[in-house]
């Protein structure tokens, strides 16, 4: 791992408008920059970018921009929904683990499943152990079939699932905004109050 020296003097945060004697501002300023030149020739094609970010961070807009600039985008939210459909190995494993009540006409009832897993952290971990490997396998299959020079894997759970460490992606791009900006975006997008936004996970 490379060591990067960061000065703590004279750091001004142009986003949060703070000036303080701290390395935090300097480190924040380095986000989105290359600490050393990227040697693309070291990587196979397609070159795979992992795109992640929290709620209202601008990840969707970034994915659209990349798609408009000759990148193939794999939307992991949509892909996961496909894997919940009737007849998939993942759907069968979910039914086996959580019971027939989470199935509706052979398809995973995501609302029913959500009521179970979001009320119990251990059950959420059980679900993730089913979903993440299945999703990863499907993502890798699509990457292998791609004829694009650059593929973008749009996945909120990318870091939690460890895809940055298992060679699923070659590089990670993370969309980051101040929490106050994210809240403003959610209020405008979803037409809800700031009080309701406070229940969102950031």
Automatic annotation (TrEMBL):
A GO BP annotation: coenzyme A biosynthetic process
Keywords: ATP-binding, Nucleotide-binding
Keyword Nucleotide-binding: yes
The UniProt record lists the keyword ATP-binding: yes
One example GO MF annotation: dephospho-CoA kinase activity
A Pfam family that the UniProt record links to this protein: CoaE
Stated name of the protein: Dephospho-CoA kinase
Lineage: Eukaryota, Metazoa, Ecdysozoa, Nematoda, Chromadorea
